[in-house]
Amino acid sequence: MERIVIVGGGAGGLELATRLGRKLGRKGRAEIHLVDLAPSHIWKPLLHEVATGSLDTGVDEVSYRGHAHRNHFHFHLGRMCGLDREHKTVTLAPLLDDQGREIKPERTLPYDTLVMALGSQTNDFGTPGAREHCAFLDRREEAERFHKRLINTFLKLSQEAERSEDVLLRVAIVGAGATGVELSAELYNTINLLEAYGINLGPQNLKVTLIEAGERILPALPPRISGAVVRELSGLGVDVRTGVRITEVTEDGLKTAEGELIPASLKVWAAGVKAPEFLTRLGLETNRINQIMVRPTLQSTVDEHIFAIGDCAGCPQPEGKWVPPRAQAAHQQAEHLYRNLLRRMKGQHMKDYVYHDHGSLVSLSRYSTVGSLMGNLTGKSMIVEGRIARIVYISLYRMHQKALFGFWRMLLIVLASRINRVIRPRLKLH
Fold first, then answer.
1. Host H or E run for residue 241
2. pTM of the entire structure?
3. How much is the mean pLDDT over the chain?
4. Shortest CA distance to 312 belongs to which of 289, 332, 334?
5. Which fold has domain 130-269?
6. Every domain of the chain and the residues it spans
7. CATH topology of domain 2-120+275-345
8. Which site from 96, 121, 229, 349 is most exposed, i.e. has the minimal number of CB atoms within 10 Å?
9. Residue 59's pLDDT is what?
10. What confidence score (pLDDT) does residue 41 get?
11. Those residues with Cβ within 8 angstroms of residue 408's Cβ, 6 or more apart along the chain or in another chain
């Protein structure tokens, strides 16, 4: 029986394991194994909402073990630390508890087919002080850690505001892609909701500076959309700074190439992406941002039994283009690889993957949603804003849930979320 091992339980990896488990694992035609360092899954594009408290991970998380049981695949909690291509085994590092005590020793997983779906992490470009003084939103734990610090800071400032009106929290966000822009808006939404929960602060007590090294924010979107978002953010109070390169991060703030110090108590780095560095030590071909180089079939260029999907895959496209590291690409590649693996099991020729750009959407919390739709499906993009854009934005997450749970369970989840909006606080305060 073929053993398919998938390393990484992000959007692409979990969707692939779910599909293969339902199709092959349930009928005993293959063993499907999923490996991830975390015990539960949260959709990465929502991490900025976790960071601000708009999303409660206790409600929206997916337990890997429970999901594996329902969908006929095996889950392994652990971190991949080695690969033996000759003997076709993956090595998992020892599993430790919070006190550093060993729960499980180092172990190996044999495979016939290996799929790398490890996603990406923020690229600080080696900027001095960035790792020490900035928050990163690559994983649930990082987002929750930032949230606790944010709430504690708000509580402290609320006490100070009782003695003085001149109280200001300065937050600096490096990188004006989707994460940086959405986080900026969510921060103002958070402080607007605080008064209802007895915290005496308002928008006048918050100053967010959004810093972008490029000429404009949201470079993946048309200039018209970028301009509209700048106006919306400026209306909220965000100081949008473009063409500014950060050369050092200190405890007091961020230093620019021009020598200016941008003061900030809380600092978030959301600029640039790269795949995990350990991928460069596996004997596979990688590029400058550590992605595994793959053929159009999503097989690695070095080993036909190893595939890569999502942000950790460097996948070429016609006309010299590359698949961008986006959630929709991971979703498409998971579906394509699922069908390719079925074709290969039947002795059929695998098909090449071609990226279809369905557009980009950015949510400015409850204030607005803007973006472009269709992309290369029609040869031109269509600008959408307001309520329609918000509905489409939410539907992207629903598509992910549908892939994991099926249509009817997805509808029940939507109903439950509606009920939670009535019976639960709109902001997580712990």
1. strand 239-242
2. 0.91
3. 90
4. 289
5. FAD/NAD(P)-binding domain (3.50.50)
6. 2-120+275-345, 130-269, 359-423
7. FAD/NAD(P)-binding domain (3.50.50)
8. 349
9. 78
10. 95
11. none
